[in-house]
Specification:
The protein is α+β, with helices and mostly antiparallel strands. Among the domains are: about 40 residues, no CATH class; about 130 residues, Band 7 domain (Tetrahydropterin Synthase, Chain A); about 70 residues. The chain is about 45% helix and about 20% strand. Strands 6, 9, 10 and 11 form a 4-stranded antiparallel β-sheet that branches. Strand 9 and strand 10 form a beta hairpin. Helix 5 crosses helix 7 and helix 8 crosses helix 9.
Length: about 400
């Protein structure tokens, strides 16, 4: 029996069905017929435009639709971190704030939207590179970082510059940072880098190396920032420098060990100078005080000696005047006063040559010793000046 006489072939299938008893079935809805859609669209256009596209009414409708679409293309959106710069036939006319705005459609007006709130960074003297073992790594760029100081030393300066586009009020046509940034500078990053390197070299070139390495970094950063901003303003670049930050300031790698030795020697010299100054500050005031004390003592001795001499001279003149009046009496008085002063403080033995006894020694009774009472011992801690005088 041939297969064509059997319904479905050797598996008993019939008609277009396959060997498993079922024909090809679609797994989903059938796709739309493109020709049918075109035909339906043409029928609807014929109802709207009985005369077809070639009629006057059809041309007007098409022109109107194109005009509406062209006018609607003038709407544009400015993001929060952007500023719109509107150009009319390529000439700047105004700025636009963030949000939905409108301008005359192309080719009458166009709009550019640079980012004016984003702070950009440019590194000078260092570059970031990919290291297969450590990921991102920094490498030095000596041709940018090596600079000559004011005292003719070489210093390696790596620094970063942070900048942004100057913002401007909406509708302003004067001093517009975004427009200047777009049209006055062809390569903003290259210009900023060149200006930063030039300003840093100028400031470092008039400063000695010691302040650069120690405490003058903030001053240098401020001076470089001001010089960069003035230069960029003269270019009308529309760029605002927000910060200049020095990353690394070292002598060249070839002489850094020797330079550290020099720094250590300078530190030792400064320490010794400080110690010597401290010693001088302590000794000099002491010597001045001692000299002042000796000078004052000599002046006091001089004044006392002069006053004593004047008193002795006055006493002598007074005695002389009395002597001239009564010489014998004054002579006897001087003799007695002298004997009293000489014998007053010594033990005395009286000899009377006219006495009947052969020795002539007259017993002496010191009556004054009985009249004096022993003084009480001074209390502990009190001075004994009165007892020793």
């Amino acid at each position: 029996m041939s297969w064509k006489n059997q319904s479905g072939g050797p598996w008993g299938g019939g008609g277009p069905r396959g060997p498993w008893g079922s024909g090809p079935q679609s797994s989903g809805p059938n796709p739309p017929d493109l020709e049918d859609l075109i035909r339906r669209g043409q029928d609807r256009l014929r109802t709207i435009l009985p005369g077809g596209f070639g009629s006057t009414k059809g041309i007007i409708v098409v022109v109107a639709l194109v005009a509406v679409a062209w006018l609607l293309s003038g709407f544009y959106r400015v993001q929060p971190d952007e500023q719109g710069v509107v150009l009319r036939f390529g000439k700047f006319i105004a700025t636009a704030n963030p949000g939905l705005n409108y301008h005359w459609p192309y080719p009458i007006e166009t709009v550019l939207t640079p980012k004016v709130t984003r702070v950009n960074r440019i590194d000078i003297g260092i570059r970031s590179g990919d290291d297969p073992r450590r990921g991102t790594a920094m490498r030095d760029v000596p041709e940018e970082s090596l600079m000559l100081t004011g005292d003719e030393n070489i210093v390696d300066v790596d620094f970063a510059v942070f900048w942004m586009v100057k913002p401007a009020a909406a509708g302003s046509t004067e001093d517009v940072g975004a427009a200047d940034y777009l049209f006055n500078v062809q390569n903003p990053e290259g210009t900023i880098k060149a200006v930063a390197e030039s300003a840093m070299r100028e400031v470092v070139g008039r400063t000695n190396i010691q302040p650069i390495l120690t405490g003058a970094r903030q001053t240098i950063e401020r001076d470089v920032h001001d010089l960069m901003q003035r230069t960029l303003d003269t270019y009308q670049s529309g760029i605002l420098v927000t910060q200049v930050q020095m990353q690394k300031v070292d002598p060249p790698q070839q002489v850094i060990d020797s330079f550290r030795d020099v720094q250590a020697a300078r530190a030792d010299a400064e320490r010794l100078q400080n110690e010597a100054q401290a010693y001088a500050n302590r000794v000099v005031p002491e010597a001045r005080g001692e000299a002042s004390r000796v000078t004052q003592g000599a002046q006091a001795y001089k004044e006392r000696a002069v006053i004593e001499a004047q008193g002795q001279a006055a006493r002598f003149l007074s005695v002389l005047g009395e002597y001239e009046k009564a010489p014998d009496v004054t002579r006897q008085r001087i003799y007695l006063e002298t004997m009293e002063r000489v014998f007053g403080g010594m033990d005395k033995v009286i000899i009377d040559p006219s006495a009947d006894r052969g020795s002539g020694v007259v017993p002496f009774l010191p009556l004054g010793a009985f009249g004096t009472r022993p003084q009480a011992a001074p209390a502990q801690g009190q001075t004994t000046q009165g007892a020793t005088r």
